[in-house]
Amino acid sequence: xxxxxxxxxxxxxxxxxxxxxxxxxxxxxxxxxxxxxxxxxxxxxxxxxxxxxxxxxxxxxxxxxxxxxxxxxxxxxxxxxxxxxxxxxxxxxxxxxxxxxxxxxxxxxxxxxxxxxxxxxxxxxxxxxxxxxxxxxxxxxxxxxxxxxxxxxxxxxxxxxxxxxxxxxxxxxxxxxxxxxxxxxxxxxxxxxxxxxxxxxxx
Length: 203
Description:
Elements lengths: L1 H23 L7 H13 L5 H26 L4 H12 L3 H22 L10 H6 L4 H25 L1 H7 L3 H22 L9
């Protein structure tokens, strides 16, 4: 995988970075750590410039995030209830959990979005609940841009700093992605095995 990503970056330049960062947020797993990390290496070598790289990477990632936000916004929070009631066992959640998440996002949603964009685990998925509760588009975009810019800045700086050792570590990237996927599946299996619905309170 990493050889294809590097080839797209080398051939497409900043537009290749924009495309990969958009796809990273729509069709995982294309790790942003690799995309922006390679960009950081190219900055260190003088083959790319820091600010255009940060700009194109941030715009691409925000555009990809917007796709899931738009889909979730169109689907809507209320339409989710029948699915949760029917498939909650497999989602390991109840409608009460959705209600609490909705209230939390209504109060602190923009800060949650910004913080999640700096997280390796929740960067993409945060678009779904933000869309389901119909967060204002401008608010979602502004705070997504801010969080994404910070994350990309750290990745570029890290790639530039590790430029010498980065090439040697590329052979391990695919195994790291596979390992993360295995951990994710294992965590879901554990949640599924241990999850129990709450007891309903008597009326």
